[in-house]
């Protein structure tokens, strides 16, 4: 018997079969992940501007925010869901201006028909001005900002699920009912 003939061929056949099996399992996992990612939907979506604060020079900082829940509209549970938000300016629509990334939206998979907790994604880039935050929108230097949200499940590709313009609003919708109108305040009760 020649050295390496039968055992060598057998070993090569086993390795080739094993590689084919792994490739088939991998493509099946990817197809399953793609289907699970396609079944995800966003609900309770809102976008707004958040005040980051002031620096030593009294400059105000605001940044765009998008908030939502993810619903699993599929028939199987979806685990290891990642989310990415990309913020862009009107003047440079092909260049990201800021972003945020969530490695996993939950410690447990989303069962079919269930929704995640509210997820909040904030741009890592700010608008800066000496103006009060609510007055920044009137500045001649103001640029509109849009946000796109992408989701993926495990090894799936990123799926675009949302694209919208961030409205000129400070704080989440509904917040205004907790704020005093500018210039108005309730009289302080007098103590006898």
Query: What count of helical segments does DSSP give?
Result: 1
Averaging pLDDT over every residue, what do you get?
Answer: 82
CATH class: Mainly Beta
Following the backbone from N to C, one meets helices and strands in this order, namely: HEEEEEEEE
The number of domains is 1
The beta-strand count equals 8
Approximate helicity band: 10-25%
Radius of gyration: 26 Å
Identify the CATH architecture: Sandwich
* Major sheet characteristics: 4 strands, antiparallel
- From the helix content, strand content and strand pairing, which structural class follows? alpha+beta
Instruction: Quote the CATH topology.
Output: Immunoglobulin-like
> Which segments are poorly predicted (pLDDT under 50) over 5 or more consecutive residues?
1-5, 10-27, 185-192
Provide the β-strand percentage band: 25-35%
**What form results from the Cα inertia axes?**
elongated
Q: Any idea what the CATH superfamily is called? A: Immunoglobulins
């Amino acid at each position: 018997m020649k050295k390496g003939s039968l055992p060598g061929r057998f070993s090569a056949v086993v390795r080739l079969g094993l590689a084919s099996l792994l490739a088939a399992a991998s493509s099946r996992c990817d197809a399953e992940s793609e289907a699970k990612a396609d079944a995800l939907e966003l609900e309770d979506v809102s976008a707004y501007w958040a005040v980051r604060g002031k620096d030593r020079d009294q400059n105000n900082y605001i940044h765009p925010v998008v908030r939502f829940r993810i619903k699993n509209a599929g028939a199987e549970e979806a685990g290891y869901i990642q989310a990415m938000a990309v913020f862009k300016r009107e003047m440079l629509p092909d260049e990201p201006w800021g972003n945020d990334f969530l490695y996993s939206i939950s410690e447990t998979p989303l069962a079919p028909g269930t929704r995640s907790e509210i997820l909040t994604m904030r741009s890592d880039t700010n608008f800066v001005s000496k103006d009060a935050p609510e007055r920044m929108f009137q500045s001649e230097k103001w640029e509109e900002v849009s946000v796109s949200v992408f989701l993926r499940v495990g090894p799936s590709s990123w799926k675009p699920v949302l694209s919208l313009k961030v409205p000129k609003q400070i704080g989440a919708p509904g917040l205004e009912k907790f704020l005093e109108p500018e210039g108005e305040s309730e009289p302080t009760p007098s103590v006898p």
